[in-house]
Structures are given as C-alpha cells and as structure tokens.
C-alpha cells in the first residue's frame, strides 16, 4: 500500500520553467536563440546553450515565434516576455513553462550544444 501511495505521488504533475533568449544575427533576418533549462553553464560559453539537431548542428530560427513554435511541440507554454539591452543590442527573453512528472522530462526532445559535446566526447 505504501508503494502505491509513493508511486501516485511521483506521478503528480508540477510546473517547470525554461527561458529562451534571442538576439538578432548580424546581416541576417534570423535570430540566434539560446535556452536556459536551469543547467550549469559558463558565462564564457553561452553559445553552447544553443539547441542542436542530432548531428550537433545549431538549429536556426526565423524569429522568436518560430523558436516558441518549436518549443511548443514539446509541451512548453508561453508565460512572459521582456527584453534587456546589452551593449546596444536587444536580448529578448521569453519565459516558458510546462507540466512534468519528473525532472527527466524537462529536456525531452531537446539537446544543447554543450550536452551534445559531452555525449559525443572523444576519449
């Protein structure tokens, strides 16, 4: 009976958040998007927080809406947007949320450059 109770509790959905950050690309109509799932990062390697495909190639987005549509396919929902100007360039921040039943579900369907490099590290 105790097992059934703890199993039911572990299946209770809870809300988690991520943030997508977009900056305009020089001489392009595309935006450069990085994602923050709350992972450990280095301030010097923010480019490693870009989403990549199965081959490790950065996924390019036409706009922040394009990036949001991509995230929505995995259950992420828009919460709030704001922008900050850094060194004369606007950085767009979109806060997203989704319901999960375990922390492993947070990044389902996504891989960042940093994670791709860690998985495919040559020993």
Task: Give a written overview of the molecule.
By secondary structure, this protein is α+β, with helices and mostly antiparallel strands. The protein has one domain. It has 3 helices and 4 strands; from the N terminus they run αββαββα. The protein has a 4-stranded antiparallel sheet with strand order 2-1-4-3, with helices on one face. The longest helix is centred in the first third of the chain and has 9 residues. The termini are far apart. The mean pLDDT is 85.
User: Roughly what percent helix?
Assistant: 10-25%
Note the total helix count.
Answer: 3
Low-pLDDT stretches: none
Backbone shape = globular
Structural class by SSE content: alpha+beta
Mean pLDDT: 85
Sheet with most strands: strand arrangement: 2-1-4-3
Number of strands: 4
Gyration radius, to the nearest Å? 17 Å
Largest sheet at a glance?
4 strands, antiparallel
Which sequence of SSEs, written as H and E, runs from N to C?
Answer: HEEHEEH
Task: Set down the secondary structure blueprint.
Blueprint: H1 2-10, E1 14-24, E2 31-36, H2 64-72, E3 77-86, E4 89-100, H3 113-119
Antiparallel strand pairs: 1-2, 1-4, 3-4
Which terms summarize this structure?
123 residues; alpha+beta; 4-stranded antiparallel sheet; 3 helices; 20% helix; globular
Summarize the structure.
This protein is of the alpha+beta class and 123 residues long.
